[in-house]
Design a protein that fits this description.
heterodimer; A: about 110 residues; Rieske Iron-sulfur Protein; 3-stranded antiparallel β-sheet; 9 strands; about 0% helix; globular; B: about 350 residues; alpha/beta; TIM Barrel; 8-stranded parallel β-sheet; 8 strands; about 10% strand
Amino acid sequence: MERYYFCKEHELAEGEFFVKTILDRKIGGIKLDDKLYFILDYCPHAGAPICKGKVKNIIIKDDELVAIRCPWHNWLFNIQDGLPVIIHIKQKLLHFHYEILSNEIYIML
Amino acid sequence: MNSKNKIIDCDLHNTFVNQSMLYPYLAKDILQRIKTRGLGYSQELYHKTAANKRLDAFTGDGATAGSSYEKIIEDWIDKHGIDYAVLTGEGIIGISSMPNSDIATALSSAYNSWLVEEWLSLDKRFLGSLHLAIQNPEHAVSEIYKWANHPQIVQVTLPIANTLPLSHRFYRPILQALNDTNLVLSLHFKQPTANNYSSTPIGLLDSYFAWHSLICLPYQAQIVDLIASGVFDELKNLRIILLEGGFTWLPHLLWRMDKEFKALWQEIPTLKHSPSEYVYQHFRFGIQPKEEAPSSDYIKSIVNMISAEKLLIFAGDYPHWDADTPDYAMQNFIKEHHHPILYQNAADIYNFIN
């Protein structure tokens, strides 16, 4: 695993994906409630640029989660764990680990 | 994009940035009425939860997806190596449901002129589909004859379900004109409206999910009705493309019609061939939206059962939310079938010379 520079800490906005290509992979970074998440910008369904979709608060019964809605076929994935919002979908998002050094974010690849 | 096949996309939804772009093509008195109420054709009955168009198909300047030539070329035509794309419009299919037939016919003429002058002229790869106001067959026929000789006009688009079945004599002049001018008829679905209610035989259902799951129903009905009416024995040149209705239900329909025919042929005495034979001669099926079975082998089996590689054509449906890229769509078919489906079947039905 190696570190690849992604962006400065302050460049990630709350609730909005920032996409960057690292080693031919499009990776989307997002800040949710001050926590950071990095996912592959590729929907496991049909390969859509999923970070171009809408970040939505989804309410299921009494639970609430923050999901990304794929811009193509409407599939929803929980951004925090990458799992599909409904059990009938078997695919999930690919996450990346990151490190912060001197206010700079690095993705582990 | 790694598909090396030649590709004809039979269903690309172009549109105007906003309705005022049709104004130059409308007569003053019609324009005066439209300016106060908008173009007026209804499109959406359901509060659906899917966005109508892919969210990445918008150019970000407020214009609607499918209205920018450059974005269509970048996002779709060049990206996927599409050789030809048939422009099928967006929403304009609603004119056939408008109660004001004078406005409907004015919009039909305006759209067709706008299509030819502002889209087909942009790119030789664009082919055009005329939109007709089916409630006025005389006007529809005049539009067909007006544009049939344009080298890029290859077909007309009508809704899959209308006030009457398509075989009804009221619409016959339209089918006759298509037969005589060599244009293809493409049938595309649209949401139910006030006078075009026929979404399911059990009535209007509650959700877009329910309606969208049952899209195949009017397609099956038009196939059976047109064949049984004997229209193909009369109009031997009539070719029909069914867009977005699916095809994996075809084995049932073909086997069923042929079985019923053996018992009930006296009801349709004009038929010269078995009913299924007419499907191969006169119908083609766009493959979008992609069938998602537990295994693509099941789809391949179905194709095998009925030689569907003769019947299927690639349709992308860009920029709608459930559009399929060529590579994604081809996952359901064996390699030998890619060329016919992506290119040759459409080239044949449009009578391409080269």
